[in-house]
Amino acid sequence: MANSGFQLLGFFLALGGWIGIISTTALPQWKQSSYAGDAIITAVGLYEGLWMSCASQSTGQVQCKVYDSLLSLDVHIQTSRALMVVAILMGFIGMIISVLGMKCTKVGDNNPIIKSRIAVSGGALFLLAGFCTLIAVSWYATRVSHDFFNPSTPVNARYEFGSALFVGWAASSLTMLGGSFLCCSCPNQERGEQQYYRQSQPSATREYV
């Protein structure tokens, strides 16, 4: 019963992280304009994401423009896009596999060893999804930090970390933590069942004789 609760905890943590990965991919605030140093504070705030760039005015009006060409984007944006999409797909597949392999579901109850291995596979996919998200967000943040401290970058063209990066870091942590719980909850059960089978088999043979 405790193992089943551990699996449920891991699944819901991973599910919350996967929803955070989707939100991170869709949010345009991967980087936002900086007003550090001698930069003049204007009434327009600029921020950019993986799919569009937006301008927010002091009146509350927001105007966004989708990037015109994929090939004209920087390499780190294209790579981050690919990693985030792969993370979403792996998280979706991992969610389905985890539901089939968890102890609280009735699918495959006749073979608990195979069922536990399915749950571990779902947890591994969640781990990979969180790792892809971590790479994409961290690489993007590294580029933003490099451009910010680059002396050749104009002061009024510098950007800081946007809120989407922090959401991505939190989402990747939750996804990997939940995937770890799913991976760690099943092997102990499998070994216990194997030991029980080995211990009960000789006694059953003796009783038969």
TrEMBL record:
<keyword id="KW-1133">Transmembrane helix</keyword>
<protein>
    <recommendedName>
        <fullName>Claudin</fullName>
    </recommendedName>
</protein>
<feature type="transmembrane region" description="Helical">
    <location>
        <begin position="6"/>
        <end position="27"/>
    </location>
</feature>
<dbReference type="GO" id="GO:0005886">
    <property type="term" value="C:plasma membrane"/>
</dbReference>
<feature type="transmembrane region" description="Helical">
    <location>
        <begin position="161"/>
        <end position="184"/>
    </location>
</feature>
<keyword id="KW-0812">Transmembrane</keyword>
<feature type="transmembrane region" description="Helical">
    <location>
        <begin position="82"/>
        <end position="102"/>
    </location>
</feature>
<dbReference type="InterPro" id="IPR004031">
    <property type="entry name" value="PMP22/EMP/MP20/Claudin"/>
</dbReference>
<dbReference type="Pfam" id="PF00822">
    <property type="entry name" value="PMP22_Claudin"/>
</dbReference>
<keyword id="KW-0796">Tight junction</keyword>
<comment type="function">
    <text>Claudins function as major constituents of the tight junction complexes that regulate the permeability of epithelia.</text>
</comment>
<dbReference type="InterPro" id="IPR017974">
    <property type="entry name" value="Claudin_CS"/>
</dbReference>
<dbReference type="GO" id="GO:0005923">
    <property type="term" value="C:bicellular tight junction"/>
</dbReference>
<keyword id="KW-1003">Cell membrane</keyword>
<dbReference type="InterPro" id="IPR006187">
    <property type="entry name" value="Claudin"/>
</dbReference>
<keyword id="KW-0965">Cell junction</keyword>
<dbReference type="GO" id="GO:0005198">
    <property type="term" value="F:structural molecule activity"/>
</dbReference>
<comment type="similarity">
    <text>Belongs to the claudin family.</text>
</comment>
<feature type="transmembrane region" description="Helical">
    <location>
        <begin position="123"/>
        <end position="141"/>
    </location>
</feature>
<keyword id="KW-0472">Membrane</keyword>
